[in-house]
Amino acid sequence: MAMAIRIHEHGGPDKMQWEEVAVGEPGPGEVKLAQNVCGLNYIDVYHRTGLYPMELPGAIGLEAAATVTAVGEGVTEFAEGDRVAYAAPPVGAYATERIMPWHRLVKLPESIPDEMAGAMMLQGMTVEYLIRRTYPVKAGDTVLFHAAAGGVGLIACQWLKQIGATVIGTVGSPEKAELAKAHGCDHTILYNSEDVAKRVHDLTDGKGVPVVYDAVGKDTLDGSLDSLAPRGMLVSFGNASGPIENFNLGILAQKGSLYISRPTLMTYTAERADLVESATALFEAVGKGLKIEINQRYPLKDAAQAHRDLEARKTTGSTILLP
């Protein structure tokens, strides 16, 4: 019998239960997977708490590296034994086995081990769409990236340096500052003790930056907007500190005809061609030296503790759950 982390009601980590589940066999267009490594991401917290509603009861999780154990009718892209990965709905990655639609999977190159794949698909493809498609960063650009020592942040710092950008990153401690710098962040700002926007303007000779990437949310909104150059773009792609509510669009005019975007990975990879292109770009960046820092490993059955540590900002880099 397969096992999964499931929730029966929204709430804290204590709502996560380690339960037996019946998986069955894949139907038309589906693939059955033996999960090798599951990824931990902040969106899992949003599903658990109900910020992003999901059908209950159900398993959570959106990312894993796995091995194909059976294919359903009409599936020609994959075969039993293939190594694959995904970072896509339907939720339910926190499981030892599961069924997935074939078109949400990508094959893993031999050069990408399971642990790396399970740690990087969601965060890595997030970085891809942020810096290559939402606001295409060019060589010579200076960008501000919040939470630069987190999983997405460490990937972004490295990828931005491959492009030739200058990276300013916010961090929560001197230790996290050193970690971000070791991964290509040019300048770090301790958001707890420094005025972020003032430091950004000091570092850019008063110009501000053309783009700010912000997954923190309401706590960093004002500082992010004030860090932008005229006609700059705030890319708000998460809300770890809480959602932004009742936003006055007139502020964008007052602060320099600014733009704001609230994108999601699921929109940017909704079409299979876009998904494959995004994953391929990530694999190529890894081939050029981008490193995936797996700094925390938990047994899948202990996912509740992983969530506690993630929400307490005790984690750095990527975290994986091992079935």
From TrEMBL:
<dbReference type="InterPro" id="IPR011032">
    <property type="entry name" value="GroES-like_sf"/>
</dbReference>
<dbReference type="GO" id="GO:0005829">
    <property type="term" value="C:cytosol"/>
</dbReference>
<dbReference type="Pfam" id="PF08240">
    <property type="entry name" value="ADH_N"/>
</dbReference>
<dbReference type="InterPro" id="IPR047618">
    <property type="entry name" value="QOR-like"/>
</dbReference>
<keyword id="KW-0560">Oxidoreductase</keyword>
<dbReference type="Pfam" id="PF00107">
    <property type="entry name" value="ADH_zinc_N"/>
</dbReference>
<dbReference type="GO" id="GO:0008270">
    <property type="term" value="F:zinc ion binding"/>
</dbReference>
<dbReference type="InterPro" id="IPR020843">
    <property type="entry name" value="ER"/>
</dbReference>
<dbReference type="GO" id="GO:0070402">
    <property type="term" value="F:NADPH binding"/>
</dbReference>
<protein>
    <submittedName>
        <fullName>Quinone oxidoreductase</fullName>
    </submittedName>
</protein>
<dbReference type="InterPro" id="IPR013154">
    <property type="entry name" value="ADH-like_N"/>
</dbReference>
<dbReference type="InterPro" id="IPR002364">
    <property type="entry name" value="Quin_OxRdtase/zeta-crystal_CS"/>
</dbReference>
<keyword id="KW-0521">NADP</keyword>
<dbReference type="InterPro" id="IPR013149">
    <property type="entry name" value="ADH-like_C"/>
</dbReference>
<feature type="domain" description="Enoyl reductase (ER)">
    <location>
        <begin position="11"/>
        <end position="321"/>
    </location>
</feature>
<dbReference type="GO" id="GO:0035925">
    <property type="term" value="F:mRNA 3'-UTR AU-rich region binding"/>
</dbReference>
<dbReference type="InterPro" id="IPR036291">
    <property type="entry name" value="NAD(P)-bd_dom_sf"/>
</dbReference>
<dbReference type="GO" id="GO:0003960">
    <property type="term" value="F:quinone reductase (NADPH) activity"/>
</dbReference>
